[in-house]
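Supplementary Methods S3. Input chains for the assembly prediction are listed below.
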Amino acid sequence: MSSREAILKAIKEAKPHNSESALPEVNILHTTYDDLDAKFATTLAGVGGNAVHLDSLSAVEGYIKEHYKEAKVIVSTVEGLHVNTKELGATDDPHTLKDVDLAIIKGEFAVAENGAVWIKEADARHRALYFITQKLMIIVPKEQIVHSMHEAYTRISFGDKDIFGLFISGPSKTADIEQSLVIGAHGATEACVVFI
Amino acid sequence: MSHNHSELADKFASNVERMKWHDKALWFVRVKRDTQAKSLDEWEELRNTADKIKSHTLSHLDEYLEQFEKNALARGIRVHWAKDAKEHNEIVLDLLRSHNAKMIVKSKSMLTEECHLNPYLEEHGIEVVDTDLGERIVQLRNEPPSHIVLPAIHLKKEDVGTTFEKFLNTQKGNSDPTYLTRAARAHLREKFVGADASMTGVNFAIAETGGIVVCTNEGNADLGASLPKLHIACMGIEKIIPRLKDLSIFTRLLARSATGQPVTTYTSHYHGAVEGGEMHVVIVDNGRSKILADKRYVKSLQCIRCGACLNTCPIYRRSGGYSYGYVIPGPIGSTLAPSRDLKKYYSLPFACSLCFSCSNICPVKVDLAEQLYLKRQDVVDAGYLSPIKLNALKMATWLMCRPKLMDFAGLMARKMVPILPRVLLYSKFNLWGKNRELPPFPKNSFKELYKAKKGIK
Ligand code: SF4
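Predicted structure tokens for the full assembly:
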């Protein structure tokens, strides 16, 4: 018998038979917030990120020039944003992204309860970009913001072709040394969410 | 060889200052968890629903595993099955060898700790780099993690400073957490970029979609898994959840319970490999199906490894992770370890004051304290209890079955104890009196006081 069969057989014999254990519906009456933008911004600030509202992509370009003066290598996956110094799709090897100072990526929607943004870019070739960049900016269409993870997961699906998607809530962080919070562990050291 | 929790705890507690610091550091995390839990009116409903989903899944576990496998395969994810730790380690080694991998980056996974994967791979010439900061610290020090979420919580920043001085050439005497974290970031970036393969654990495996979810704050799992061409994810059979939307419950509970954050920084849903790469999932039993068969302990398989029961446990906080002698310490470890080997871990169910804080805090409602209470009985039935404790219990039972004699013994105790010399009173037979002072003895028994109050003759 293969290990697969042996394990499945062992489980079949061992598993509890309780008839009350139906799979429950996930319809929890969840906390909602009067001002979604404000709740999102304070929650994100609480986890070390920041949220801004801008009018247009050209305003974003201006914002980048002003706030990321040091950034030499910039990769953006956002169409119509002219700040790239490097093209994401131009290389087969994600390792070449190790010098990226600032990545600007597309977020689908934001979650007010926890400061997270859902990211699933079907066209971005290398997911490594999200983690290897020194600083991260996520562009989210304004009004694309939900109260809680319950609403969030009603918007998420994984079709046959989808391979990767994630929530990012603020910059990477750790408290592994004496419980002192340090922003910037292995992933981005700054995370800015821009609503347009 | 069996091991004794209270002896190891003594060792930890002998450094009183350190013990108090450890206690406080974990209590701080517990308080943060409370703030998060209280911020949601629906907290208890989330726990109830999580409990129901998990318990349903366990009673259909084979079906969901097969569904997961089918969907994962359809996506091109390869699925492997391992009965035990040995098979798990062999599968991983084979995969690494077939890709000619010499150095791998690994993110936190209690399962690979359980299987002792690192030493196995190292013996076979593969360099293994743990990339979670806490795990890297303990790996460099050649220690196991002492907590399932905060692996280096037993260390002070000065300890980390000296460790990094030795291995990462940091400045002598500099123990600033930000400085040390930056040093580790630079050191580990080189490892990430140079790795031939990556390994991660699995927080949740979704039957419906055939994908897995990994939650981290540091981004180490993701950075590791998105660079090399080979990603191996290892999971226990109990990590399955039925539907994608079940994650709305678990992602709301996990980080809030673990560290008091509203969610982890990264919650990544892997449904396939990087371009031109391979993704493998290894599904491991290693004793879990045995627990599944025991109604009394089956709920321990619901655990999502948040660590909240450790942080809240008055014993764990004052005895440290190493006093448990098992890969998973604290209340959850105290039931999982004896389920694996009752003789070896017989002392763990007694490392508990039955305060029930763990049962009340657990986000998926594992009945931890209830299980520890039952485990104690298993230990007694199996004859593993120390003769002193066993005789004391037998004597107490005998006495309590004889009310008249019990009253008399109480009377004698109230009269005699206050005049007995200390040497006699705190002899080795009085286990309770170890490190404790007896309370002042009252003049009257509870029964007498009660009767007097109620006017009963
Ligand atoms: S038993 Fe519950 S509280 Fe303890 S680690 Fe597991 S999920 Fe968390």
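Residues B 257, 303-309, 332, 361-364, 366, 368 surround iron/sulfur cluster (CB under 6 Å). The radius of gyration of chain B is 25 Å.
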